[in-house]
Structures are given as structure tokens and as C-alpha cells.
Amino acid sequence: MTSNPKQHLNPLSMIYFLFRHLLDWVILIALVFGPAMRFLVRHHISPLLGFGGIILLIIAIVFVRYLCFTFEIADDMLTINSGIFIKKHTHIPYGRIQTIQRSQWFFLKPFHLEKLQIETAGHDDHSPEAVLPIVPERVREAIEQRRVSHHANSDSDLESTIKSTQANSKPIPTYLINPHDLNVFALTSLGIFPLMGVLLAIYGKIQDVIPQRIINSITSEIVQQSILMIAIIALLIIIISIIGTFLTIVQRYYKFTLTNESGQLKTYQGLFQRNSVTIPVNRIQAIRIKQNIIRQWCKLSTIQALSASSAGDKEKSNDLMIIPVIKTAKAFSSLAPFISWAPADFSQLTTLPKRDFWYFIRNALLFGLVPVAICLYFFKAWGLLSLPIFIIAFFQGWYSASNTGWKISGDQLIMQNGHWFTRSQFVIPRKNVQSFGIHQSIWMTRTNLAHVRVNVRHGNSNEEVELRYLPLSAAQEIFNWLKIRK
Amino acid sequence: MTESNQLPPQIKTVWRLSALFTFLILAIVGIGCYFLATTNNWQWLSYPSLVLIGIAIIYFIIELILVPYRYAFWRYTLTDDAVELRSGYIFRHLVSIPIARVQDVTLEAGPVLQSQKLQKVRVTTASTSHTIDGLEPEVGERLRKQIMQMAVEVNDHDV
Predict the structure, then answer these.
(1) Same domain for B88 and B115?
(2) How confident is the model at residue B61 (pLDDT cuts 50, 70, 90)?
(3) What is the ipTM of this complex?
């Protein structure tokens, strides 16, 4: 394909444009409604005609916007032209593309249409550099093909090109989520707690809305059965929360698939809306293996990739899922075909000696002191009910300490820490560490302890990975190892 | 050049001057508010403005006390392939920035720094940003050159 004419989006995009700015239009109409009515009445024009005119105008604007929005798939870059009055031209060289995200609603699948979002590492904005609302699937194919060939050309050593062609002849490594694991994963989400809060709030609202008369007539009956009622309502809320989170998670990761095609990782997921993210393996900055405490007991892990793109899970800020759920024992062996530098197996990490646990527990208890003090001040004796916070804080401290671990393995640093009953293990290649430091207070010099902080690019900002209260010698070992230049 | 360097001594003047300016701004706002409050008999404003003046004074005193402490323990080291920043005694920080990871270096000087013939150096990586409060222009320039040279050698940042 040598000719690369300007292309328009699919005409259906007009509906997208219309709905994306629907709120603006509604506000506009609401604002002009009064004056417009007066104007129309004065000039004896039927209001129907007048508002029909406004709607026609809106449609015309949307249509012009559609006409002005074009894109060009040139040989070395993608160009997007948009804007009616302020013309905007975005040029994205293929080599600079971080991720390509596509989402396809089930009703667009028969028409082979989808939404494309293209991101680079530039950190100007939170929104992707390019959004193509509704385009035929072949557009993505064309872009991806050019991107792959660009990578092959730019690699100076021929070896990787050969490798990628070999990879084409070999079966493509593929991972498909295990439905049973997904069910357990969805059931063990800690996300039910926020949802429970929302439901409780809704229940409170409903109570306000019910007329007082009805409540009064029922109250006498309820009082006798109040405990039973409260129990039933609480149980209902919990059940609805569990079902709600369960369905959300299952539909989001439904048939999650991960493939590796010549150095490009590609994920597919979702039931109603199939989402897909493509990212070159060599753009991944670090890997994070995450488990909350319940999933630790169920021996399930989540594997995420940190990259300089904010693609991925919208709700969970930039975490790009590589494998949403996998048996912990198989985590690294399943990852190996996709990320070549990942360790082959879980390494035995160096952990903290038991006597250092105290510092974590002390800090957690100090944090717990704040809410307890507030409760005691405001609720006096009733505030004593907040004392269990200390128990939670104690276990939180213990949890953080016992999950702290580190290891230098080949060219990578493995760091593990625990926060809020969630354990995260980071695998960071040395070349992706942006900066690092040792931090120590004067009291820690007596006990020979230090914190180590390592900074990695994540999304549009920084991910600081911290190991707290390491023995100074270990901290210095990590520091000196990070200083070595390849 | 691998030994640790203290910041130039003029930086103490810079810190004191910036503390003074911040104090003056806060104090002027506070006094202005207090003046308004007393002339218009606005009870709601008189206490906050006094608090603001108090904060300004406390801030100024603490900053002045901290200047020698900060100066005494601030060190920077330029090695062939890294910038190391060391600071603090009660809370000790040692941060290392590999030059190969540096995306850009910014030299800047406001009026206060200019009066002391210093430049503020900001080193930015793909994810973090580190500041050296003030360097003599020659040192800043040398740092900039060194980093640019390394950046040419390492042409692919892999971000």
C-alpha cells in the first residue's frame, strides 16, 4: 500500500460525537429555551419549527465535525486531523506508539467496527493521544502491521528480525483464563466493601423517601422484629454486594486471552464490550504480582505490567493486566513465554528478621492511634468501641513486615512489600530504574536499618517501590548493584 | 571528579532571602487582613489573620534555624555515570540518578539566585525530578554537558 489517502471514520461515529457532547447540547438548549421561545412567539414562528431548526443545526455541526475528522496511515506515521474552527493535526510516528487499545461493543462486532485509542509515552495529558471512535477493524490491522515492520527495521541486529519471523512459524504463545480461577478471583475481591457502602447509602436514601405515615404504621410491627429485620437487610446488602462485584469482575475479564505475536503482547477481555490492548514487550518497565490476603490463601495471583502508558484498567489507574488470575505456583512459568526476561520461577526472597517486625507494628499502631483518639474525644466511652482498630493495626504491621522481601536475580531486582493486606512483588530490570535512594533517620543508624526506594515509570507518572527497615548492609548492596552500569 | 561537593556558600543567602520573601508575603497578607478586620469590625477575619501572622513568624524562624543545618549536610556528587544527592542528618537521604536515565536538564535562575550568581539545576528522568538548589554557572554547565554527552551515547531510553 503506497497510497495513503485521508480516510474518514465510519459514519456511525456521528452518533458517538452526538452522544459525547450530548450534555453540552442539552445545556445549550436549556439556556436558549426561554429567549428562543419569546423570539419565536414574537415573530409568529411555530416553536416546533424553531426547535426543529436547532436540532437540525446540531446535526449539521456533528456532520461537519465528522467531515473534518480524518486520519492518514502513512508509511512512517499516523496523522489525525480534527477540529472545525481550530484545526488540530496530531502526528504519531509508529515507533513511538506505546499501546493500542481497542474496544468493541457486542453490537458492533457483526459490522467489524471498533473504537481505537493510541497512546505514546508523552505525558501531556491524561487522555490518549489519538482516539478513533468508530473505525473498521482493518485500520488497526494496518497500523499494527506498520508498527511491527517499523520495529523490525529499527532493530540494528538482524537476530531479532529472524527471531520474529521464526516466531511467526512457531505457534503463537497464548494464555486463556481458567474459568474456575476467574470465579474464585471474582469472589475474593476486596471490592465488595466499597459497593456495600454504596448500597447502605442507597438504603438510607430510600428510607428518607418513604412517606413518614407508612413508616409510622409499620414501625410498631418492626420494633418487635427489629433485630431480625436489621439482620435480613444486612444479609441482603452483603449478598447483593457479592453478586454485584462478582458479575462486574466476571464480565470484565470474561475469556481473557493473552498472546505474544512477534514481540507484541495483546490482551482480549470482556463480555459485552471486548477490550484489547497491544503493547510491545520491550516497553514494559516492570512486572507486579499482586495478591490480597484472601487470594494468598486461595493461592491465586494477579500479574500486571507497569508501562509508560495509561492504557489498561480504567478504574484501577493504569494497571495493565497481563494475567488477571493464575495459580500462584504457575505464575512465572505461565509468564515466561510472554516476557522473556521474567524469572522462570518464584525466587526464595530474603526476608526480614523477626525482631525487625516491631518497627512495622509500632508504626501501624501509631497510625491506628489517630482514629481511636478522635473517637474517644467525640464519643467518650462509646469511643472505646474503636479499640479493635489496634488489633487490625497490629496484624497490618505484622503482615507488612512478614511480606517484605527482596532479591537480586540476574539483571533484575525483585522487591516485595505488603500494604493494606495486599502483597505486591515487583520484578524490575535494572535498566528501567529511573532513580533510587537510601533513606534513614538518625535513630535507624543505631539499629543499622534503612529504607530503599526505587522509582519506575508507570502510566504518566512515577511508581515508587519502597522496602522499609532493611538491614543497612542489604540496602547498600541493592544500592551498589543498581549503580553498576551495564 | 568523584568527591562530594558542598553547595556554594552563597546558597545560604539565597535560602535566607527566599525565606524572608515568603515571610514578607505571608505577613503582608496577614497584616492587611487584620487591618481590614479592625476597620470594618469583621470578627470572623481577625483571628485567622492573627494566626496567619503567627504562622509567618514561626515559619521564618524555623527556616532561619534550618539554613545552617541544611547547608552542612547537603552534598552532591558527580560521577562518570550518576548524580548523587545526599542530604539531612536527622533524616538522611541518599538518592542516585543514573545519567543514562536522564531525559533533560534544566538550568534556571530567578532574581534571588541571579543576585548570588547561581543557577538552580533540575534533573528530570522519565518518572522523577530532582533539584539542586544552586550551583555556580560553570558547574551547572559542566553537569549539563556531561549529561548530554551520555544521553547521546545511550540513544534508546526504552520508556
Answers:
(1) yes
(2) very high
(3) 0.78
